[in-house]
Amino acid sequence: MEFLLEINTEEMPAPHVKAGLSQLKEKIERELQANHIMCHSLETYGTCRRLVAIGDFAPKQEDREEVIIGPPKAVAFAADGSPAQAAIGFARSQHAEVGKLQVIPTLRGEYVGLKKITKGRPTGGILAGALPDVITSLSFPKMMKWGEVNIRFSRPIKRILCLWGGKVLAFSIEGLKTNGLTSGHKLHSPQPFKVISFREYRSGLKKNKVILSADERKYMILNQIEKRLRPLEAQLYPDEELLEKLTYDVEYPYVFLGEFPQEYLRLPLEVLSVAMKEGQKLFSVIREGRQLPFFLGVADALSDRKSLIRRGNERVLRARLEDARFFWEQDLKVPLAQRAAGLRQVVFQEKLGHYENKSARLKQLVAYLCDRLDENKLKKDAVQAAELCKVDLLTEMVREFPSLQGKMGGLYAKEEGYPSTVSRAIYEHYQPAGLEDPLPSSNAGALLSLADRVDSIVGVVGIGVLVTGSSDPFGLRRHANGICRIVLDRKLPLSFDPLLEKAFSAYGDSLEKSKQEITEYCRAFFGQRLRFIYEGQGYRYDLVEAALSAGLDPIYFSYLRLIALASLQKSPHFEPFILMAKRVNNILRGLPPYAVNPDLFAEKEEQEIWSSFCIIRDNALPLIAAGEFVKAQNMIFKLQAPLSAFFDKILVMAEDKRIRQNRLALLQALSGLLLKIADFSHVVVEGEKKERAP
Amino acid sequence: MSLQNLIMSLQKYWSDQGCYLAQPYDLEVGAGTMTPDTFFRVLDRRPWRVGYVQPSRRPNDGRFGENPHRVQKHHQYQVIIKPSPSDIQKIYIDSLVNLGIDLSVHDLRFDEDDWESPTIGAWGVGWQVVLDGLEITQFTYFQQAGGVELFPVPVEITYGLERLEMFLEGKDNIFDLDWSGDVSYRDLRLREEKEFSEYNFNLADIDRLRKSFALAEAEAAMLIDKGLLLPAYDMCLKCSHLFNVLDARGAVSVTERVKTIGQIRSLVVRVAQKYCAEQGRT
Questions:
Q1: Banded pLDDT at A692 (limits 50, 70, 90)
Q2: Are residues A271 and A160 in the same domain?
Q3: Digit-coded pLDDT (tens) for A304-331
Q4: Residues of the domain holding B30
């Protein structure tokens, strides 16, 4: 039977609509399941003004069979098969005739019992009972109250349409009763109209200038954009986020093309597109990567027959661009180097000082990174970029459009004639801004981005701010992800501890926490970020754990370790080797370190394993140092046979203390070598259960 | 339609909606929200309907009368209705139609814009209303003021009068607007913009302003203790404006900014709490 629900509201933000729809679907499904109601289909639709669910559910709950066990068969019936008192009494207690009793086999033998069918209740009543809670329990990124209503929602609810099998399903929320009415476009067709089915609802909305399906609206937008751009042989400056937002913001999309005076093309593309996007939600139009003096807007309208919408937007944009040009010209009057003195006025964080302090630290850190990574040619430019990269916080343009921070600094540096290495590094040093954002493309940009983020993390952790599930006020997760992505992408041979130490010492003695506390916290924190990245790439969690537990020296090796493990996990040597490694670890647990004395190896097997170990170690260590983990691991697999013979023949826990400790020392040396490849004790293998079983 | 006709039309419209027509408040404020006709009246449980013009000063927005859109003083038409009526959006849209705007040929949008005023501990949820790309109104369901959760929930509708008038007259320069048939915005306000910009940005005496701030702050604290909440609140408004001038003058560092806003807010919060306690609310 058809179910239709429309929660009609005032304009909700696009992310709220999406969050609302996915919860609505999930919650209705859960109710159906909990009430044993068959759900043939359930779909959701939404615009900024409505959350809609359309479903096909069974008209009633499934009938449920219940078995009530009575007395054992042996006492319930006499020898001749006639019912005894026990059976008659049981039947009476269940208000059933004796003839309805059945023999039920149970684990304890045969019993007499009664099968009772509970008829399913009609779905309508159940839905009407459940929906008020379903609707009022929807949660949104920011909730509000209105009027004198005691619920919170994304925006005020105006009307609730709910149909079940073509009739209004009656319930109410805070005095608002459901009805069979909906309404069309807020300006073009606001009067409510009645519907009795989804088909009628959908076509009624279309007639009243509302396109229900987001896909259809998006298609209309793209189609019209294409039509507007074809004569210009131009393209849209792509902006998925804006497109997605507009798809939900309008109920009937109309795309208009507008123009702005050529003279503003002297402004950088970045400035133009932000001026268009922020505030007016306009798309930039480009041809071969160059901005054209056009823009595209999406109106919630049927047409623009008097061109008023286009002209209105042109006028507003012109004013905005005029402002931007004013900022651009004003900003260029003061060179960055001169403006830099003002950084003392801008607080980075109250306990961590101002941005002049930060720049000074960034210079040190970037110089360290250049030394460390053999980028000496880059050093001068990178240090200069570090000195200037925060200056744009003092410009009018960044004050007006904060999302342009970094980029403006780079653009102004370029205008002032700084080397392109410097201007690009400044431009890129906030990249990547998010998980999908591109990484810095230049070496100096990557190093400056690393330096800035490490500095922020060490500083903020150093004053005792901890990142928890919901709280990350300084965006440290984003910073750590950025660092990991840059290091992995560029395969940078950077060790974690020395990098943190450098960042720590750049703060002098202004941090509250000790170097050790900060390093320990950050090691765990970065471990989590890497785990998140690796698992996101589809690696097995236990292999990720094994690779990460071998340390971050250098950080990039954790990835090489992981891909080696992943590529070797299918090898026939892998599982027996892992089991052996775990056995070694189990024996060694909790022991102090001992030293090997080769002269004490008396038995053939222990001499053999020791000499194999020495050869393999000497060959494997250079491979490990070079990050050749597959080769190193393949080599170490060869220890399996002599080790197995050793365990078969030799009693590690010998009575003679010196012999025993010498054998343990041998195993410790071996385990130490393994740990340079991965911490195998984290790897889960199939054979493990057999091994553990007695 | 001249600006004064726009004002009269809105006055008539909201008066017909049962609003009491207040007169502009006689202190410098940054927005209509800050005047007692909004601030105190949203705190209690009684119904309230008011509409008024409020000249609003934002020293930082001054441009010496040289920018066609930005001025250090503009005019808001402020409407507060508590509790918010269920058809308030329609009532608002009709107010635009009443101004002669044919909405069937325009694009009217309610764009997410959650409003916040840290100085008076207030925030709300709502939209900026955008007409063909031009922001003409801030439309907010008030959730908190003076740090107090508001219930019943008031709706606040704030028209930017100059913006709306530029739309109605189809003009690109604020100073070209007609205040009345014979008096232009330029006649009335250009000199004021030049002189106040000069004062706010270049001449305001930082030391004297800081002293004035401290005096008003002390006066506010004293008045709160005495339970004279309206005068106390006036002193908070004086602090807020003095702070804005100091800020425009470039005398406030970022850290100081946060600190000073916090000082004003804590006074305002005390006023609000005392007021609510008197009304039997906490």
A1: very low
A2: no
A3: 999 999 999 999 999 889 889 988 998 9
A4: 3-200
CATH number of the domain encompassing residue A404? 1.10.3210
Helices marked H in A252-404: 269-277, 308-333, 336-339, 355-372, 379-388, 396-400
Q: Where among B157, B184, B200 does a domain terminate?
A: B200
Identity (one letter) of the amino acid at A614?
Answer: C
Main-chain phi, psi angles of B5, to 5 degrees: -70, -35
Six-digit token string for B152: 């019943």
Spell out which residues of chain B touch residue A305, defining contact as CB-CB under 8 Å.
Answer: 105
Cβ atoms B54, A117 nearer than 8 A: no
Domain final position from B200, B229, B244: B200
Domain count, chain B: 2
CATH code for position B101: 3.30.930.10
Closest CA to A280 of B216, B27, B88, B107: B107
Residues B117 and B257 in one domain: no
For range A82-109, the mean pLDDT: 86
B9 and B85 assigned to the same domain = yes
Instruction: Please tell me the predicted confidence (pLDDT) of residue B254.
Output: 62
Chain A contact for B181 (CB, 8 A cutoff): no
What six digits make up the tokens of B16?
Answer: 């017909």
Note the pLDDT of residue A368.
Answer: 95
Mutant choice from B49, B86, B115, B168 vs A, greatest count of A C-beta within 10 A: B86
In a domain, A587, yes or no: yes
How many Å apart are CA B143 and CA B156, to the nearest integer?
A: 11
Strands A167-168 and A39-47: unpaired
**Nearest partner of A96 among A125, A67, A128, judged by Cα:** A67
Whole-angstrom distance, CA of residue A263 vs CA of residue A255: 25
In a domain, A554, yes or no: no
The answer to the question of residue A260 being in a domain is yes
Q: Is B172 on the interface with A (CB under 8 A)?
A: yes
Q: Are A351 and A259 in the same domain? A: no
In sequence order, the β-bridge partners of residue A164 are A3, A167
From the CA of A592, how many Å to the nearest CA of chain B? 54
In the listed set A259, A294, A322, which residue is the last one of a domain according to the structure? A322
Task: Note the helical H segments in A549-687.
Answer: 557-568, 574-588, 604-625, 629-637, 640-649, 657-675
Residue ranges making up the domain that contains A157: 2-60+122-207
Asked if A484 and A529 touch (Cβ cutoff 8 Å), the reply is yes
pTM > 0.90: yes or no: no
B18 and B88 share one domain: yes
DSSP A481-536: HHHHHHHHHHT----HHHHHHHHHHHTTT--SS-HHHHHHHHHHHHHHHHHHHHHH
The residue type found at A644 is: S
Partners of A282 on chain B (C-beta within 8 Å) are: 133
Q: For this complex, say whether ipTM is above 0.85.
A: yes
Shared domain for A35 and A174, answered yes or no, is yes
Query: Which of A265, A240, A268, A235 shows the shortest CA–CA distance to A427?
Result: A268
Q: Which of A28-32, A647-651, B251-255 has the lowest mean pLDDT?
A: B251-255
Average of per-residue pLDDT values in chain A: 91
B23 touches chain A (CB under 8 A): no
Query: If you ran DSSP here, which 8-state letter would residue A471 be given?
Result: -
Beta-carbon separation of A186 and B93 below 8 A? yes
Alpha-helical (H) ranges within B70-205 are: 88-98, 161-169, 185-198
User: Which residues, at least 6 apart from B102, have a Cβ–Cβ distance to it below 8 Å?
Assistant: none
Whether residue A241 contacts residue B103, with contact meaning beta carbons closer than 8 Å, is answered with no
- Per DSSP, the three-state class of A183 is strand
Q: State whether residue B91 sits within 8 Å of chain A by CB.
A: no
Residue of A nearest to B167 (CA): A312
- The token pair at A343 is 């950084």
In a shared domain, residues B224 and B155: no
**Residues A463 and A588 reside in one and the same domain:** no
